[in-house]
Design a protein that fits this description.
The protein is an alpha+beta fold. The chain contains 7 helices and 5 strands, in the order ααααββββαβαα. The chain has a 5-stranded antiparallel sheet, with helices on one face. A hairpin with a 2-residue loop joins strand 2 (about 125-130) and strand 3. Helix 1 runs antiparallel to helix 7 (about 230-250) and helix 2 (about 50-60) packs antiparallel against helix 4 (about 95-105). The chain is globular. The termini are close together. The model has no long low-confidence stretch (mean pLDDT about 90).
Length: about 250
């Protein structure tokens, strides 16, 4: 390895490690903001299903936006918004769903993102599937409803994929909840998945490969709450960059 290569490697590692340190610190500060939100919303007296709907109601009341706020520099914008940024500025469906998932993780309730697809094929909307009190619930913190079957029982992604047509049940006392009567919300529920695979040509190409390789299992591949932290995604990106430069310098 030549001296110029060592300089490039050393500089990249220094910048990358500094960025990782900043991201770790920012995530820890952001988590404190999230923990205060959860504590103030629940008051230490609500648990289980009631806690899910209490947190979802609080998030529903946050300002609605057409897009998620940028939580730091534009370089990390692709990783989505942080809980602190969402609580400050509001968000669209993806940000509010992320905030619900991370809030529930703080009280030990597992949840993950579900993406609803339009009848024309594109990913259109997202909400959360929650595992609580020995059942699964689909909870939409953007529109203030949970999805149930015709008898009022909670439904899951699996139920949607096998053809159950859900009903909207408000979990908030506000009267403006529910999906608007608009063709935008003509969802193809059986096409629901755990990710937005139509956002870019790269995602569409990746989905085509993964769908064949997994024989369709990618459609219900669960993304852990750890990956809902944009700072964690930034840490992974920085670590990957350091590794690539190190390997290329060998």
């Amino acid at each position: 390895m030549t001296l110029p290569d060592l300089d490039i490697l050393g500089g990249t590692m220094a910048v990358g490690l500094a960025a990782i340190a900043v991201l770790v610190r920012q995530r820890n500060l952001d988590r404190k903001i999230l923990q205060r939100f959860v504590a103030s919303s629940l008051g230490g007296r609500v648990a289980g299903r009631a806690a899910v709907f209490r947190l979802a109601s609080q998030i529903y009341d946050l300002p609605h936006a057409d897009d998620d706020p940028i939580w730091t520099c534009c370089f990390f914008a692709a990783f989505g918004a942080s809980p602190g940024a969402i609580l400050k500025a509001g968000a669209c469906c993806s940000g509010k769903t992320r905030l619900l998932i991370l809030s529930l993780a703080e009280i030990g309730i597992r949840a993950y993102q579900i993406t609803l697809y339009h009848k024309e094929g594109q990913a259109q909307h997202c909400l959360a599937e929650v595992e609580v009190d020995n059942e699964r619930l689909l909870v939409d913190p953007r529109y203030g409803v949970s999805l149930t079957d015709s008898e009022g029982r909670g439904v899951s992604l699996h139920d949607l994929q096998r053809g159950v047509q859900p009903k909207q049940v408000p979990f908030t006392v506000r009267t403006d909840c529910g999906y608007p009567l608009d063709p935008y919300y003509d969802f193809d529920y059986p096409a629901s998945k755990t990710a937005n695979w139509t956002r870019s040509s790269l995602r569409r190409a990746a989905y085509s490969i993964l769908h064949r390789a997994t024989r369709g299992a990618v459609d219900h591949l669960i993304v852990p709450a750890w990956f809902e932290w944009p700072q964690n995604l930034g840490i992974v990106a920085c670590a990957t960059l350091i590794s690539i430069v190190a390997i290329a310098s060998l």
